[in-house]
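User:
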Amino acid sequence: MHTYIHTLHYIHTLHYIRTYTQEIRKSILNLERTNRTIEFSWVKAHVGIHGNELADRLAKEAACSTEIQVVFDRMPKSSLYSELEEEATQKWQEEWEQCKKAAVTKQFFPTLRDSINLSLNVTPNFMAVATGRGKTRAYLHRFKITDSATCPCNKEDKTLDHILCKCTLHKTQRDLFKEKVPGF
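Assistant: Predicted structure:
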């Protein structure tokens, strides 16, 4: 209960600070229009400087006041961009999950958030693997480019999954890869 009250007080304080910040900006703009010079400088706190002590007292009063109107019409561009990016990513993820296509690509990238920040050298070969459109016998057979989809190991169709995980002809390379990439 105490933490909740403290957090709620903090949230209200932030809103009041935003209101005062907006008022300060307006005052500065009005003063600049009258050709006044405004300077801000750092002063040591709590050493008896009248203006600083007054500012501290007024800030504390504002933070604790419950009579100040909260204004929400100002927002930093960076916050707006962050919120829009988050909203767009969530919408994109929902569409990604509902899409019936891209089954192979979804095996590589189940969530968009993980793949967005991933730094990859996206080559044509990588895209062929990630999209399931590699030049495998199974893919080429779909378009009647090869007579058979069967892998030369004669176990099953030569799909990317078969090549990467099951094909006996690629076992040595797969074992070397597993040594270098734990968890594969």
